[in-house]
Amino acid sequence: MGDPAHLKRIALLHLGRIHDETPALRARLARRGIASELVPLPPLAACERAADGPRAAGDDDWSRFDLVTVRDCRGSHQHPDFLPRIRALAQQLGSLGVPLANPLAVIEAGNAKNDYLPRLAREGVALIPSRWLPRGWCGSLVELLEDGGWQEAVLKPAIGSKSWHTYRVRREGARLTITAADGSQPVAAGAVDGWLAALTRHGEVCLQPFLSAVCREGEFSAVMLGGRFSHAVAKTVAAGGWIAHERFGGTNTLRQASVAERRWAAAIEERLRRRFGVLPYARIDGIRNGAGDLLLLECELVIPRLFLAEGEAFDRYAEVLLGPASTRMAW
């Protein structure tokens, strides 16, 4: 692709729903003379057909785009073929010289928490203690909690979003209570192990101690754009709740990050940079432990809400998309 200044059209891939902030972003791009088009992520067969031979009638002509981004592929965790579709499309785009704004390696690693989080832990990043249960795991959840010394814990899938299949576990002796993010109790106390075994049949599951500080302080989210700190947001929990998400009554408020909080986010971003190079965007989420120290919850690298409105960051994000190639790694 030529000079980034000559970008004229960007494809915003999606799976039927887009971020609330995307219409405002498209308006900002239009003011700069950049057209953006919402394009459904093609089915796997179409991508593979196009990659293997001449373009058939009805196939998308990706050569009309100068850049393709996947950040609006919300709900990808409910599409098991999401990564195969992206890989096949990336191969097709590569043959046309059309770059992904999101590096393919980042999409592959960031799609599943069990890829990048254990690696960051090995590199010295302080994470919430985690036990990863592999696909097909069978065993005693009570014993897992006892081994960790945890009275309360959180269960969540390695691939998920918006607290999908996220559960709070409370232990009273040998009795467990499971509460879903919406407050429901999906399983009887005596059937927990069978329920968990069924859950792991669909993929790897993470078990972490429940940090009560989330109910008081919520989560801290640092947004990095083009490898630099852009803004931070405090994500609070609704009264009586335990999930820091607006879907469950929480709020998102711009936060003036302290020097220590910026350094925390920058140190994590620097480790991501060693592996992937400069990322066009990343959202780094943390929760404080009992001592008040930030522990990494997750890094949203693929399809994050970036709180562009809260951080007045639409123009900064546009600059990253349209700026130097170092912030838009090609496939």
Produce the secondary structure layout.
Blueprint: E1 9-14, H1 22-31, E2 35-40, H2 44-52, E3 67-72, H3 82-96, H4 104-110, H5 113-122, E4 131-133, H6 141-148, E5 152-157, E6 167-172, E7 175-180, H7 192-200, E8 205-209, H8 213-217, E9 219-225, E10 228-235, E11 252-255, H9 259-276, E12 281-288, E13 294-300, H10 314-322
Parallel strand pairs: 1-2, 1-3
Antiparallel strand pairs: 4-8, 5-6, 5-8, 6-7, 9-10, 9-12, 10-11, 12-13
Helix pairs in contact: 1-10, 2-3
SSE string, helices as H and strands as E = EHEHEHHHEHEEEHEHEEEHEEH
Helix content range? 25-40%
- Main sheet record: 5 strands, antiparallel
Strand content: 15-25%
Shape: globular
Radius of gyration from the CA trace?
21 Å
Parts with pLDDT < 50 across at least 5 consecutive residues: 325-331
Mean pLDDT: 87
Distance between the termini: 12 Å
> How are the strands of the largest sheet arranged?
4-8-5-6-7
**Could you give the count of β-strands?**
13
Walk me through what this model shows:
The protein is α+β, with helices and mostly antiparallel strands. Helix content is 30%, strand content 24%. The protein is built from ten helices and 13 strands. It has helices at residues 22-31, 44-52, 82-96, 104-110, 113-122, 141-148, 192-200, 213-217, 259-276, 314-322, and strands at residues 9-14, 35-40, 67-72, 131-133, 152-157, 167-172, 175-180, 205-209, 219-225, 228-235, 252-255, 281-288, 294-300. It has a five-stranded antiparallel β-sheet, with helices on one face. The chain has a five-stranded antiparallel β-sheet with strand order 11-10-9-12-13. Strand 9 and strand 10 (228-235) form a beta hairpin. Helix 2 (44-52) runs parallel beside helix 3 (82-96). It is globular, with a radius of gyration of 21 Å. 36% of the residues are buried.
